[in-house]
Amino acid sequence: MSTAVITPIRPNVRSGAPAALRPTVVDAAAAAHPSSARPSGRIRLTRRGRVVFTTLAAAPLIAVAAWFGLGGGSAIASSSSSSATFDYVTVEYGDSLWTIAGSIAPEADPRDVIADVMSLNQLETSTVVPGQRIALPERYTAS
């Protein structure tokens, strides 16, 4: 059983307004426990709560990304040396990669041969100079 407390409204002395004569009704249980007067149906997160919740949710993702980024896919070096051997061509005066490609692989498309030679020798441009040694891809030298 709930009891009600009636409190009169006091007049506003500063403004000189007349006092309201209607009383206010306050539930005694709600006055004793103000938090129980709130409806409890939704949980509201504060800013700090959202930050903590987001951090906890993102922590596993950050850990997995760090695992793969720092050492999950590392390469292993071995002490054995490569057994690849290449045939070389020394560029003569007037030679270009086009003429070299035509001489080492006449049946292939010269553009493909030039691309393979540039990739193997790590050339940025197709310009060559006399005296330069160029390694030839193995598939064009095996005859």
Automatic annotation (TrEMBL):
Protein origin, superkingdom: Bacteria
Annotated ranges, domain LysM: 88-137
Keyword Cell division attributed: no
Transmembrane segments annotated in the record for this chain: 51-70
Keyword list, A-Z: Membrane, Transmembrane, Transmembrane helix
Gene3D superfamilies linked to this entry: LysM domain
Protein's UniProt name: LysM peptidoglycan-binding domain-containing protein
Organism listed in the record: Mycetocola zhadangensis
